C-alpha cells in the first residue's frame, strides 16, 4: 500500500542545483537570443516544478503491465496552473508536460511602467469551483505587487494551497509576499539582492516578457 501524503511546509525554497545554475546564467546573459531564452525558461520551469510538486498528494491506483497487476499512484487533488500574463506563459508548457491533467487558468496582469503597480486585465476564474492546489507561474517577482494581486484573486476564488514558482525574485519582493501569505510555498531559482530605481531586479535578466516574446523594440 502506498503511503504518500508528505508534510506540507510553507516558506521560501531557493532551489540549489547545478543545472539551475547553468541555465540561469545563460538566461541572464544579454547575448541570449529569444529562441534560447525561451528554452532556458522551459528547462528552469521543469526543474522548479519538480521541486514544487514533491509534496502533492498521491493515491493508489491499480496498473496492469504486460506481465502482472501492480499498484501505481495518481494525483489526488485538482491542480491549477496559473500563469501570470504575459511572461508566465513561457513556463506553462513544461509544467503541463509534467502534470497533463492540470487546469490552466490565466491571470492577466501588467506592471504600470510609471508606478510599478499591477493592473489587472484578464481573469475568468469560474466562481465556486476553485482548484485544490494552485501553481502560480511567473518568471519574475520584483516588488511582489503582481504576485500579491494574483494571490488575492486566487484566495477569493477559494484556493487552499498556494505554490508560487518564479525563476528570479528580489529579496524585498519575496519578503513582502511571504509576510502577506505565510501559508504559501515559494519556489525560486535565485533570490537577487536589489531593485533599481525603476523597480527592475538587479542583476536580474531585464524584462522577461519582452525577452520571451521578442518585443524589446
Ligand atoms: O513584482 P512586480 O514588481 O509586480 O513585477 C513582476 C511582474 O512584472 C513582469 O510582468 P510585466 O508587467 O512586465 O508584464 P508582461 O509579462 O506582460 O511583460 C513580470 O513577469 C511580473 O509579472
Ligand atoms: O526585473 C524585472 C522586473 C519586472 N519584470 C521583469 O520582467 N523584470
Ligand atoms: Mg514585461
Automatic annotation (TrEMBL):
Would the keyword Lipid metabolism turn up in this protein's UniProt record? no
Q: Which InterPro entries match?
A: PRTase-like, PRTase_dom, UPRT, UPRTase/APRTase
Q: Which residues form the Phosphoribosyltransferase domain?
A: 15-215
Q: Which SUPFAM superfamilies match?
A: PRTase-like
Write out the pathway annotation from the protein's UniProt entry: Pyrimidine metabolism; UMP biosynthesis via salvage pathway; UMP from uracil: step 1/1
Which reaction is the catalytic activity of this chain?
Answer: UMP + diphosphate = 5-phospho-alpha-D-ribose 1-diphosphate + uracil
EC number of this enzyme: 2.4.2.9
Keywords (alphabetical) are: Allosteric enzyme, Glycosyltransferase, GTP-binding, Nucleotide-binding, Transferase
Protein name as catalogued = Uracil phosphoribosyltransferase
What organism does the UniProt record list as the source?
A: Aeoliella mucimassa
Name the encoding gene, please: upp
Amino acid at each position: 500500500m502506498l503511503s504518500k501524503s508528505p508534510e506540507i511546509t510553507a516558506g521560501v525554497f531557493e532551489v540549489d542545483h547545478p543545472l539551475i545554475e547553468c541555465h540561469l546564467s545563460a538566461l541572464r546573459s544579454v547575448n541570449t537570443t529569444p529562441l534560447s531564452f525561451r528554452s532556458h525558461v522551459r528547462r528552469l520551469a521543469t526543474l522548479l516544478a519538480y521541486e514544487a510538486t514533491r509534496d502533492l498528494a498521491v493515491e493508489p491506483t491499480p496498473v496492469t503491465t504486460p506481465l502482472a497487476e501492480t499498484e501505481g499512484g495518481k494525483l489526488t487533488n485538482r491542480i491549477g496552473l496559473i500563469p501570470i500574463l504575459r511572461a508566465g506563459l513561457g513556463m506553462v508548457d513544461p509544467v503541463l508536460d509534467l502534470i497533463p491533467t492540470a487546469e490552466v487558468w490565466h491571470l492577466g496582469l501588467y506592471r504600470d511602467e510609471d508606478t510599478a503597480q499591477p493592473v489587472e486585465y484578464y481573469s475568468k476564474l469560474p466562481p465556486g469551483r476553485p482548484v485544490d492546489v494552485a501553481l502560480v507561474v511567473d518568471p519574475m517577482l520584483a516588488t511582489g505587487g503582481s504576485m500579491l494581486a494574483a494571490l488575492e484573486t486566487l484566495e477569493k476564488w477559494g484556493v487552499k494551497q498556494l505554490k508560487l514558482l518564479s525563476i528570479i525574485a528580489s529579496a524585498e519582493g519575496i519578503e513582502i509576499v511571504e509576510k502577506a501569505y505565510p501559508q504559501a510555498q515559494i519556489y525560486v531559482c535565485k533570490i537577487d539582492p536589489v531593485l533599481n530605481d525603476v523597480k527592475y531586479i538587479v542583476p536580474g535578466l531585464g524584462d522577461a516578457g519582452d525577452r520571451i516574446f521578442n518585443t524589446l523594440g
